[in-house]
Design goal:
The structure holds 3 protein chains of 3 kinds. By secondary structure, chain A is an all-alpha fold. Chain A is built from 15 helices and 4 strands. Chain A has a single domain, classed as ABC transporter involved in vitamin B12 uptake, BtuC. Chains A and B meet through helix 4, helix 5, helix 10, helix 11 and helix 13 of A and helix 3, helix 4, helix 9 and helix 11 of B. Chain C: It holds the Pfam family BCA_ABC_TP_C.
Amino acid sequence: MPLRNLILLLLGIAALIAAPLGQGNYVIYVLCSWLIFSIAAMGLNLTLGYAGQVSLAQAAFMGIGAYTSALLTMAGWHWILAAPAAMALCFVIGLLLGYPALRVQHHFLAFVTLAFNTLVFLVLRNEEWLTGGSLGLVGIMRPSFLGFDTMPQIHFYYFTLVVFLIVAALFWGLVRSPWGRAFRALRENPIRANSLGVDIRRMTLLAFAIGSSLGGLAGALAAPLVQFIDPPAFSLVHSLKILLMVVVGGSGYFFGPILGAGLVIVMPEFLRFTEGYYLMIYAATVLVLMIFCPTGLIGLGKRIAGRFKGQRVRADLKQGAQL
Amino acid sequence: MAEFLQITLSGLATGSIYALAAIGFTLLWQASQTINFAQGEFVMLPAFFVLIGMHVLGLPLFVAMLFALLLSLILLGAMFKKLVIEPMLPHGTLPIVMATIALGILMKESVKEFYSAEAQPFPALVSDRTVDIFGASVSFQDIANLAISLLVVVALQFFLNGTRTGRCMQATAQNPGVAEILGVNIKRMVLYTFLINAALATVASFLISPIYLAKFSNGEPIGLVAFIAAIVGGFNQIRGALVGGLLIGVVDNLAASYVSAQYRAAVPLLLLIVIILVRPQGIMGKAEGRTV
Amino acid sequence: MTMHVQTAPTATPVLSVRNLSKSFGGIKAVQDVSFDVQAGEILGLIGPNGSGKSPLFNCILGQSKPDAGEVHVNGRSVAGKRACDLNKLGVGRTFQMLQVFPQMSVLENIILAGQEHHGTMFSRLFGAPDAGLTGEAEKLIDFFRLGHLKDELAGSLSYGQQKLLDAAMAFMAGPSLVLLDEPAGGVNLTMLESLKERLVAFNAERGSTFVVIEHNMEFVMSLCTRILVLAGGRIIAEGPPEAIRSNPEVIEAYLGG
């Protein structure tokens, strides 16, 4: 890794460590949700941005992860066991949800996953004996690790940060590995990839399963953060929100979803003063951004940087070659 | 048996309205690969145009309906194409999906903020008397809805197959490249498609609002049902969308009566998943190429 | 009782097609076609439009199921094999349409083409990002004279360069048989010469076997060692290029339609 990037990385981590210092509980809560949604959005970025498989069900996996980990911790499991269990369950369900992707693509897949999200919502709401129905689950404990109690908000932030950094590092490794290359090949040209020995069936299913398990992990972090979960927190709207994070940030870019999650989580806070109009302003912003910059913020950044650096030699040939 | 018949008939009536939205959805997809996630809101909004026409401008009902149709054609047809879809077309499906989702939220929130968050009564076009058919009591409203919807669909079919413009539109949808070579003005044909979609949504709005009342949040369930109907029917065919709409209307109505209220909403979704897995081209559709 | 003894058992053909038939609706696209391809051969498959080349190709590649007959690669049946399994059996291919991964660099395109043949699923997740293939990939890129472009995005290359890359990808995994579907299509003359010359050199150096479908007669005649002519789904002629050139039946098939 070039020295410059290493320094930037360390500065970034230092900023994340310093961010909550001196802040009130609410600000720290917002920072925690940013990290948690970043994890969920990273998962969706793998499925959608790298492997090119549309999924509108990431919130459902957050829900499955949140309820699984909450129920297990309430039954006496430690979080460190409950969270992997939640991820494993999401992995398996993600595999199953990946099967339709082997048959249908694009908009069809969007609708299958959309339907799945709504079905999960119905189950969470209706199976009261397990999920507490629309009242949800109350009194979820925050974990403690070898005496480090995450009950204080700032402790929980650092706990979330550690998980986030581990996930980010693993994700970085994954997308650079041959698996990552195979995922991108799947997105760019599945038929050619298949003819080169890439088992596209297996990679499609894995893209769903891994992406979903990250959604599950995000859920397993969200449950102890809020200490209360109910079905509406995992409805379709939230899947769309996570999708928005990925697309607005820049799908297929490592930092895209992290940036997107920051924007989607933080912007409402800035728009708070507008009260009732906040959703409208929000929607209008997304609309305008999509119309003027369909590749997301990272794409926009690259375009601006490209303008400053001057056009690269071959960039002009590019369009000709794609015709 | 009478009960079953009654449920089926009223299901067909609502289903025919869903079919209108589903057909518009299908047309947009064919003409410009646009998946309109705001389709439900497109059906929700014209009712409010009528209400604005009646209560704010003081127009009589039928004039207000014409006013609403005109406004829909401009806003939901022409402007939607020009300002939202056209700039994004070169960038694939995903930005359009996001933008139409955002547009849907924008429309919904605007109605909530600027008109009312409460459900508004909407004038029915026909009296609410009922008639007895084989022991089932069917409302005039249901019969009128079914008749009007089917009439619209037949008219649309006639337009698409029987007129030159209609055939040009079909050619554009099937193969824009060839159509252009043959001298078809593609841009105009796509615009017509958007206008037809707006008109279909408006008619659906007029028919469904007396039943469900006009409410800002109506779009979501209507849109979802329209998607399901379009996919179940086959996505690339008007006939398919019609059959899909009718089927979903009936299934939904039967589910409401015979399945637990809690899981009623799950039935159309399960139908969707099964159809996609077993017959991805839809009940009426022809197979398109698969990638995997 | 007489036994028919196969002579020269060492020469198991790389590709063996036996009594292959395939029809679509009522049209017999491929009728009872049999031929072998020996190691090191460059076989050209030509014929007028609609003569059954593509259906034959698709049957060989396991893309469509033949109505009758068998296809063996290195003595193993291709029936029911998925494209990725067939590739693992040692079959490389190119497509009629250009097929590269435009958003990946040239080097990454080539590494992708080799990575699934190295290590296990596990090692591909936790091992080196390049699966230890950078050296080998660079050698191949240099061989196809794309060395100066190795870090460029494949999508930014010229059409001819992409065609070379496309072919190079098919060779990366060291296949025993490579099927080239119209490699010359759309390539300009200079690039065509260099493509042909590279293919011949590759064949000579590594002893790999090619089957080529091609419309460009000059290209086929100068590239291939043996040519099969299809018409109406049947093989009507077979032999070295010079014999085919003067075969009256072939001329009839092309001119008489």
